[in-house]
């Protein structure tokens, strides 16, 4: 087979609720002969019995990407799946990295990236409008970058007055990293800055905890949680029933921090 006889769709599956899977993503998945991805994400996809599932561990992104290219070169229609949006700490960058460092023929493969609803957008919608101003998204994982770099970026974002969304906040292999991040941010941000823990948004086990940077407890967080840290322009609205909304002011009259 020559390059171009198959193709790759890089698909963001959304946060987990089927209602948050985009129609474009659903159409791409319906064309797939093969599914490639981290095992829990591959398991989420509804597909016919003829579709081949290639599930793998969560630390073999480049191997997955190479496998997808090889299948496409063999004439297969491959869906490489990620949770949320595949371009936000997902498989899109891994596929293009594999192509960039692979044989010249790999650059002829037909690749389409399908956007998805990222966890930060789902969490923000559930909370109100915490991303109404400038914000950033940072992964706390130090698998592919030094922890010192993570801390430097956190500090810079906090000093710049950005709302910060944290992906990969805490795992069994990294139980202390989120606590270290909070300790650092407490030296920069006012103690009343809102913090939200948004877990499994849109799924049956959804859980939302609102607190502040002073009282934020890392023990309430796992790898299914999106941690959102406001800035001094992030406000809390308490409703009559006790429920709360977060929003960040669009107007900046003075530095946030």
Question: What topology does this entry show?
Answer:
Blueprint: E1 7-12, H1 23-31, E2 34-38, H2 39-44, E3 52-56, H3 61-73, E4 77-82, H4 91-101, E5 110-114, H5 119-127, E6 128-129, E7 135-139, H6 147-159, E8 163-167, H7 177-186, E9 194-199, E10 207-212, E11 225-229, E12 234-238, E13 244-248
Helix pairs in contact: 3-4
Number of strands: 13
Q: Report the mean per-residue pLDDT as an integer.
A: 94
Number of helices: 7
Percent range of helical residues: 25-40%
Q: What's the main sheet like? A: 5 strands, parallel
The side-by-side strand order for the widest beta sheet comes to 3-2-4-1-5
Low-confidence stretches: none
Order of helices and strands: EHEHEHEHEHEEHEHEEEEE
Q: Look at the helices and sheets and give the structural class.
A: alpha/beta
Radius of gyration: 20 Å
In whole angstroms, how far apart are the ends?
Answer: 58 Å
Quote the beta fraction. Answer: 25-35%
Shape: elongated
Summarize the model shown.
The chain has 257 residues and is α/β, with parallel strands linked by helices. The protein contains seven helices and 13 strands. A hairpin with a 5-residue loop joins strand 12 and strand 13 (244-248).
Label this structure with key terms:
257 residues, alpha/beta, 5-stranded parallel sheet, 5-stranded mixed sheet, 13 strands
Question: How would you explain this protein's 3D organization?
Answer:
α3 crosses α4. Strands 3-2-4-1-5 form a 5-stranded parallel beta sheet, sandwiched between helices. Strands 7-8-11-9-10 form a 5-stranded mixed beta sheet, with helices on both faces. β7 (about 135-140), α6 and β8 (about 165) form a beta-alpha-beta unit. With about 260 residues, it is α/β, with parallel strands linked by helices. The chain has 7 helices and 13 strands. The model has no long low-confidence stretch (mean pLDDT about 95). It has helices at about 25-30, 40-45, 60-75, 90-100, 120-125, 145-160, 175-185, and strands at about 5-10, 35-40, 50-55, 75-80, 110-115, 130, 135-140, 165, 195-200, 205-210, 225-230, 235-240, 245-250.
């Amino acid at each position: 087979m020559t390059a171009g006889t198959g193709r790759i769709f890089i698909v963001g599956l959304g946060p987990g609720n089927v209602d948050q899977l985009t129609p474009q993503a659903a159409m791409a998945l319906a064309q797939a002969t093969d599914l490639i991805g981290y095992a829990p994400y591959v398991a989420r996809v509804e597909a016919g019995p003829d579709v081949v599932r290639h599930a793998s561990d969560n630390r073999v992104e480049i191997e997955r990407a190479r496998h997808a290219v090889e299948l496409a070169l063999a004439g297969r229609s491959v869906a490489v799946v990620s949770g949320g949006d595949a371009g936000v700490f997902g498989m899109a960058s891994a596929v293009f990295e594999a192509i960039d460092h692979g044989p010249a023929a790999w650059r002829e493969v037909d690749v389409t990236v399908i956007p998805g609803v990222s966890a930060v957008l789902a969490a923000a919608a559930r909370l109100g409008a915490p991303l109404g101003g400038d914000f950033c998204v940072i992964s706390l994982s130090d698998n592919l970058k030094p922890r010192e770099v993570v801390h430097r970026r956190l500090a810079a974002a906090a000093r710049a007055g950005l709302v910060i969304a944290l992906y990969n906040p805490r795992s069994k292999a990294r139980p202390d990293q989120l606590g270290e991040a909070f300790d650092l941010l407490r030296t920069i941000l006012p103690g009343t800055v809102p913090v939200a823990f948004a877990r499994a948004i849109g799924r049956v086990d959804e859980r939302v905890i609102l607190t502040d940077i002073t009282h934020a407890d890392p023990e309430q967080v796992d790898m299914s949680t999106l941690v959102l840290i406001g800035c001094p322009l992030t406000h809390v609205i308490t409703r009559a029933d006790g429920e709360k909304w977060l929003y960040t002011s669009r107007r900046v009259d003075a530095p946030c921090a």
